Amino acid sequence: MTSNEKLTVMFLVLLTLALVASSDTIKGLLTESVTLPNQGVVGAVEDGMELHADGRWIKDSLGRTVYLRGVNKGGYNNYQTGRWQAEGEMSYGGQLEFRESAVHFQMNHLRNVWGINCMRWTLCCEWWVNDLNNYRYNIRRAVEIAQEYGIYIILAPWRVTDAIGYVRDPFIDWTPQQLVDFWLSVMSELGHCPNIIIDPFNEPLSDTTTWQNFMQQLINAIRGAGYEHIILYQWGYGAGPNRRLVDWFDQYPITDPSENLVISTHTYGNAEGYAWTNQDDYTSLKAQLETAQYKDVGDVLNMPLLIGETGGRDGEQQFFSNLLQIFNEWGIGYIPWILFPGGGYPLIENELYFPPPTWRGQTLIDAISAGSP
Q1: Does the pLDDT of residue 7 top 70, yes or no?
Q2: Which of 118, 123, 234, 323 could form a disulfide bond with 152, CB atoms 3.0-4.6 angstroms apart?
């Protein structure tokens, strides 16, 4: 072999090695998360985000069990902008305009510092129907940004009309068909987003049979339109010692042809009117949760359970810590109330974003970090 031929062979070998290395690098960029300025973790984190119920568990399309843990954000029931504050900004800064940079800032912090993978947004139905001040876009774009961070969004109507105040029976102002039509409109706009979860209405206190019939009507309509997203089923305020989840479902059952139904309830302490006995004692609280059939949703119904709201008033620190520990042990998801410095259950200290966590917020952070076995 001549010297020129040797040089040619060496060149080809080096070129091949370079291409292999470049291929690995490119492949890595495509499959690993990357960090972009002011945007946090984006990229492949959204792969496989479609959720489905698999017995007592919620799993993604890659077969991984997903424990939904996050925060309630009330911005979209009070402001068409969603009230997303930018870094170093007070709450009024997010009231007048929707800014993607502020959404990125908050989601980056919540995902990468707090460790959440889920947010629950309360909505005003009439604002959506009338698209007041670009309400639909302001929700849709934030949902799409959440997908970049691997964050699931639970959408939960808080009120159906623009009237100030909170009415827990949506059928005082709307018919069941109007609420079904609202959800079909939402899905026509957001059905392409794999990270949304349908919470039909916050703490519905309609007649129980009326709500059962509406839920079946809604499920049939959503599935008939081709959407397979998870739908939550809850009636009333929450479960407790005198209201058992499996007994309630057995009395008011509904069926989902897609089998993507998740039972949901809200859980607070005695300061909110619950009747826990010795609620600060871990063993006692766990036994009462078993009596209320929290664990039986998985063991008996073979369905997932999600705690859509939870929290503790001042003086209920031990109760709240024990509660989240028990939910972790049972593999139950939880979304505490609320990402705001007021409202009785604040997760943050003040409105200068991003604020330090209150004891509630820190309890949540610690529980998420501890995880489920």
Answers
A1: no
A2: 118
